[in-house]
Fold these 2 entries.
Entry 1:
Amino acid sequence: MIGMTDAASAGGASAASGVPSLWTVAAGAGDTLQAPSIEYGKLSPVLIVLGAAALGVLIDAFAPRRARYSAQLFVALAGLAAAFAAVIGLAASGAATTKAQIAGMGALAVDGPALFLQGTLLLVGIVGVFTFAERRLEPAAHGSRVDSFAAQPASVPGGEGEQQAVKAGWTTTEVFPLLMFAVGGMLLFPAANDLLTLFIALEVFSLPLYLLCALARRRRLLSQEAAVKYFLLGAFSSAFLLFGTALLYGYAGTVNYSSIARVVAGTDAVTDPVLADTTGNDALLLIGSALVVMGLLFKVGAVPFHMWTPDVYQGAPTPVTGFMAAATKVAAFGALLRLLYVVLPGLRWDWRPVMWGVAILTMLGGAVVAITQTDIKRLLAYSSIAHAGFLLAGVIATSEDGISSVLFYLAAYSFVTLGAFAVVTLVRDAGGEATHLSKWAGLGRRSPLLAAVFAVFLLAFAGIPLTSGFAGKFAVFKAAAEGGAGALVVVGVIASAIAAFFYLRVIVLMFFSEPRADGPSVAVPSAMTTSAIALGVVVTVVLGVAPQYFLDLAGQAGVFVR
Amino acid sequence: MIGLLVGVPLLGAAVLLCGGRRLDRGGHWLGTLLSAASFAIGAALFLSMLGKDAEDRAMHSKLFSWVPVEGFQADVAFQLDQLSMTFVLLITGVGTLIHIYSVGYMEHDPGRRRFFGYLNLFLAAMLLLVLADNFLLLYVGWEGVGLASYLLIGFWQHKPSAATAAKKAFLVNRVGDAGLAVAIFLMFTTFGSFAFAPVLSSTGEAGEGTLTAIGLMLLLAACGKSAQVPLQSWLGDAMEGPTPVSALIHAATMVTAGVYLITRSGAIFNGAPDAQLVVVVVGGVTLLFGAIVGCAKDDIKKALAGSTMSQIGYMILAAGLGPIGYAFAIMHLVTHGFFKAGLFLGAGSVMHGMNDEVDMRRYGGLRTHMPVTFVTFGLGYLAIIGFPGLSGFFSKDQIIEAAFGKGGTEGWILGAVTLLGAALTAYYMTRVMLMTFFGEKRWQPDAEGREPHPHESPKIMTIPMIVLAFGSVFAGGLFKAGDTFVDWLEPVTAFEHGHSPVSATAVTASTIVSLVLGVGVAWFQYGRKPVPAVAPRGSLLTRAARRDLLQDDFNHVVLVSGGTHLTRSLVYVDNKVVDGAVNGTAAGFGGLSGRLRRLQNGFARSYAVSMFGGAAVLIAATLLMRAV
């Protein structure tokens, strides 16, 4: 089997009885109650983050308003940093390679891809916290510095309550625990080793994101509309995923990944009499897997499940957009990879052609529609759709190179995205962020440094050599071509060419157009946003100039535990 | 040691060009000294070479690997054999003399340091060209001399004519350079190498077609550098450069690089008789072309330039004859290097004394005013027309004999052409001599109204002229006596005797007859009666020859307007077809984008429908895949 170790799985024993015992111990009425055995050390990154999130809730509940901001900031950063250290520690102890295993009674995998993506997610989370905590951009309201989030989200936009909250200088410090919960769910998502854990993780990170989308300080109606749309469509897609889970359970009599894979391969037979009518029914398998995959494709923003992306990206507060664009993609692609490589490898002659179609539609659709966008955030949203298509090309490779190239691409892409959205937060006029592209004309003359930095990000998006975007795209396309998807690579290159047009158009606009008289000004951020942008540039350039070390790292991590 | 030959003048160029103004005072002496040092090294190597057996004289020295790639080995390596040695001595020897001359000639020029820097750069590049042991490094030198030539023709770039001439020389040479590049590509694909030894020793393995192609491309290169028809047009204009440059680069050394290239690649031409035939034709045509142009020019330097073209035609023709001619081509090259450099220096000396006047119709009667120049120029004159006993006589006589020796109709035609060339040479050189040094004074004030006061040039200019005059007188005899020169080159160029249907004595006799004819006609026209100060209208041929036989008109009509039309049509195609396709594609995608964009209508319900439809298609496709 491609991309898997022969490591004995801890979950294997319990999985034979269907649902992992983690989900069934409580239901074993009459039997003696057995405590599940949890490998706390192996799961420490998730536990630390979720613990910090819970602590954040307590802080918001009990700490005085004045102290909340710094306390939340400290707890969030400390939690993420500690979790990152735990990931590094696990990787150093060999958990990513030789000692990869299934933990938590078969619910979670601790292996190379999981740890690589968790590390990436935690770094993205740290940068996300930086942009969330930025308080220099909005003009101070009545003497107190405020961030990009609504003063009192519960108040009616434009109403009395809002005015009072603004006057009082309130801020929504709940965003930090929300972000931490989202990160916690995202850490679980690519590590989930059964369909129920997958669903739980999905909800754990999605719900906070729905909320965060609604919290913009300015243009609140747009923000709330985006959140509602995101929530409705997200719930819709969750339903698909859950339904698919049910169908797969009906087929295999289990929700555990490796057990389903064994049933698909025919090495395990289901003996449960209750399921005698449905097991082994291929229609259930095919429909179920298609629905689960669809749920994940919604999260990565693949065509035709992408339509939420532009509206939500535009409406959400820009720091949230940046975090969401980067982190959701990392988590969802991790889960998609594991699903396709661990659960459905026996089915790859069925899903590959379908995924081909999705990838082509996604690459071309994202690139083509981006051409006519006039809002920078929507433009970046369509760009993220096109990039999802490129990533799908790597997923389709069904090889170890495919896994590692996608891992590398995700790491490279997420920092470019964070940096790019952080730049968007800085270009402002009286109405807040000036996101209409026409306002960016001539930015290169007024703020050459900022425009140059943004140009670096755009070049990385376009995949120009010496940026991380090129190294990532090259790795993905190479894996796809070697995996027999040459035609897909051709489409990918064409889509890249189309995409290059609108990226370069922004560069041309910034550097070769006359600045507008009523053009935006560039806010001077604090060290936090500055470091977010600087980190983006550094990662972009380092991964572009010397990608080999990181490619090797991703290559070592490119093996799923089974 | 061999590397030093190139390195010393290169160092000089670097120091002089980068050194800044503080070198303005003594820089010219530094350049001259380094040139002399290079000559000294060359002479030392020559002596050590003489001490060895003829077969062991070639020396090799590898400096470093330039491009060490599997399957593509390019080294910076030198090869000093008898052929290269001959060139080294000529280049550094004549080069040093001209450096010394230039100290006097360029005394009042503000750009003197730069001038000497360029001269040193030229020496380094030319030495690299003749010392390289592979065609790629030769190409570096080839381009290097082209660069130096460009810089020196346009040395007085404030004159538009000089700037244009430099550009013209550069452009025309590019055509030839492209030929050399293609030849090297062909060599690499055919032989897998471009070093002399493997390429030239394995020509037997390649087909004659390939060898012919390589030969013709090399010939194209030679035509560019050596101003042979059809790439001859730049040489006349190159006379815009300072006269020492004309003497060194555009008479004695660089323009003979084509002869070197053909001689060096002799093995290739020996295997490609068709290419050799083309070489001979090019040489013969240029021989007459240059001579006819030289007959009509009133500008002393342009007359000499025509003569140079014609004399190199002799050399190319000889080289095209194969092993019966290589040695004589090089021998004529060396003797020509002496007497033509001497003639140019003499012309420079005359200009020096005549307020930079170049029109011979405004000279006349200068022999009493400039005795040293007169005597040295006269000796050069006698040498070039092939006066018995002087250098040119021996070397040219040998070529004429070899031309007859080609055998058959070809031999008769070539012999006739070379004899006609000898007569024309005698005619135009006598004309130059008579118009400049004899007859009545036709001096006129220059554009600023200054009356000319002809005077002898300072010693620093006359001494190099005297040395070169010695070479003009004796070099040929030395080379000829006991076949010294032919024996010296034999290991490199492999000598064969031609089978002339005419006896050597008869050839010599007819050479002398044509010489007397040429001199006689010239004296009849320019010695017997006064020379008109304004050129008469002249015959159609004369008028054409004054316009360089319409070379520029031909180039203009055929190449310039042809090229203009070609680029216009290409621009049209680019604008309408290529850009049309590009813009059309872009517009197509833009339109598509605009339509697809409307799908994004902002309603969550439509989005949900899209997801639902997508899911349905996804499931259907998955099921379909299983069904298929």
Note: Chain A has one domain: 2-28+36-138+173-556.
Entry 2:
Amino acid sequence: MKSDNQILRERAVKNAQKMESKITSKEDYLSFLEFTLLSQRFAIESSFATEVHFLKEITPIPGAPHFVSGVIFHRGKILSVINLRSLFKMRERGLTDLNKFIILSYKDLYFGIIADSITGISQKSISSITPPPSTVDLKVSTFISGIFPDGVVLLDAKKLITSPEIIIK
Amino acid sequence: MLDNFENDNFLKELLNDFKVEAIEHYESIVKGLTDLELVSAAEKKQEIIERIYRNTHSLKGAARAVNLNEIERLCSCLETIFGHLKKGEIAVTSQLLDSMHKSIDVLKVLIDNLNDGEKNGSVSANATIRNLEYLLKLSLQQFKDQKESISTDATAVANIIIEETTESDVHEKETERHDLYSVRIPTGHLHQILSESEDFIAVKTTLEYYRKSLENIYIRHKDDELYKIIKDLIAFQSVSSRMIDDLIINIRETLLANFSTLFKVIPKMIRDLSKEYSKEIALNIRGEETEIDRRILEELKDPLIHIIRNCIDHGIETPQERVEIGKEIRGKIDIRIEKLIDRKVRITISDDGAGINLESVLGSAVKNGLLLGTNTESLSGEEIISLIFKSGVSSRKFVTDISGRGLGMSIVAEKISILGGSIDVTTEKGKGTKFTITLPQTISTFRGILIETEGMPLMIPSLYLDKAVRVSPDVIGNIGDKSVIKCINGETIGVVRLSKVLGIERADSVNRRSDVIRLVILISNNKRIAFIVDKIAGEYEGIVKDMGPQLQYVRNIAGVTIIENGKVIPVVNVSEVIDSASENPELFEHEQSMQNNPLTQEREKRILIVEDSITVRTMLKNFVENAGYSVTTAVDGLDGYNKLENEEFDLLISDIEMPRMNGFELTKRVRESKACPQIPIILVTALETQNDMKMGMEAGADAYIIKSNFEKSNLVQTIKRFI
């Protein structure tokens, strides 16, 4: 854990410096946390991704929506964990290794999403995204901001975190 | 502060509290002094000196707060000596320790004399203080001169102190310790007592049951002696019921305490801190009489003190600054406690200081890598403030001894959340900061029984539990097509599988063979239903926690609780489960079919899992174990084959692609083996072509499952098809 933190910290410092130069060159580069689900790469604006950890035991909650894998006890807090694969109705095939979770938070809302692997932090130009192809399920596409030229799908974190479809009251 | 304490009763109470605290410090000092003679390691000594120093310091402050001048001065003197000891400016000698002990005895007499203002057994604190001062001077001198032994002068001083203390007083007062107005009991113990007293409710219901039984007999056999017994029983029942009710109410009340017990330390603390920081502060506390669970109150002490320290250190400006910007010289700290309607308590702590410096917080967060290179400009003020609850963030440029390390607020937030509460901050630059803490009035502890259904552990609050019983399947009968059970009292209640109501049952669970059925009879709103569960695993006590902001409501589930090994267990919302069951009468069908099942002995089925990837292996193991099987694992085909030869298994689950021996080969070898040619084999793999499936079947496998599908309970169903 410690080394993870260290790595993240170093990354953060590194990225922060990069950003400064990017901002001065007046480009619209932002920092993204990238992860994979099955073979698909996803990105999320790193300001919404507060923590990344190895997944501990998940307790399934009977009667919770299908996309909620369950809850975990993390640092004295209970938080629910969402399986995007299930939310996005991605085909359940192939070997997966869902053993990481990313805590997404915005204001007082937070929850975890599980991922196969964390690829890292990248700087990408927000204006380079193209809208998702029309073939994408409408329900899914509401959570997608677009696709980067390298095929990484950008999730709309704010929408994901605050969507009434996700927040179960 | 003392001006406000006009009320005599309050002062009395305060003195009593002070006495309890003082005795604690006294005892700690005595222990420290004794320890000091016993240990030889310099490091240990230093530790003890440090502790005594703090004790004398705290006692001094407490005495000052209640205007006990003599005790304050004596402690101050002791504090000074220990301060020098701490810095190594004087040496610990046995003579010095003796004098210390004597002075402490005087302190004890002073404390004991507080009792109802009695002033018997007068001792002169002044003399003791003078002696101590003299001793200190000598010791300092002596240490400077590096003399080997303490001079005769010092010994003389020690003797003087003996004369000053009337030893008989000390002994006399010793016995009075038992008459103190309060005792300290670990709250865990109180809760234990509460839960034990609640068990008496069962005595009440049992008495009621016996009375009814006897009355029924009397109707059939009129008997004078029996009539007398019943009459006596009724009298006894009414008396004992009242006793039990009173007991429970009283114990519940002991668990409530009002905030004033917590806030008596605050004025003193503020006074000390404001002096230390040369700030002037007016404290205003309202709503101290509000009551809250004692355990919450105790846990609340540290977070509240931390917040107040923050207000003084970070918030309130220095008098000069305040005058310059046209504020009143005295900074204001307001603490307000209110009881909210839904059994919650709100504490607001506000100051009229400078407010939280958002730029510093942001800078600190960025420096600590908490924002992972976010576009910091996009953060709102609210979002930035919330950063102070993150570890490592501080608005201070310099760390002081009381705050600025950036750990405090994150601990505060965590503690409050553990208590089931929440904390919010608002701040306005130049105007001040306001912390709002909302807490439940009582810790919602509950006792519950841990049950298991379909391999899923669940907690059922004991409050709703009527009975947990093991019955034979033929006890369950039916009315129409609904399963029912007859209770001892003749009432007929519906029987339903809990997993069905929760929607987690598996297709075959109804037909599971078992010679014993475990029932939990739950009651809510006078509705009673018997639920079939797979296992009853014992009773636990816990706190119901919510499931995070994303999962604010789930039907039939009240929240989760954490049992001793850190395992998270969902807690059943009994009234909803009973409603859910009553709304769906079809759920009650077919439970009677169980009585037709042959009775077989329950034995845990053993399954061997052969899989080379550790992740998938562990996942599979957990998954299968959760379904109620005993699991052994092997790392490849060869390992698996060896285990099959040496141990007995009921079923084999194997991966296909593995080093040394793959799944197809393993299947073939098992079928040709002597040990267990008939064992059901399930192949699990990522391969998905028709050809693979064909190869597997040809090798002799019984089933073929695609990996990643097993979480859909496909696997467990498949296993159940075979064993």
Note: The beta strands of chain A are 29-37, 40-45, 49-54, 68-74, 77-82, 100-106, 109-115, 117-125, 144-147, 153-155.
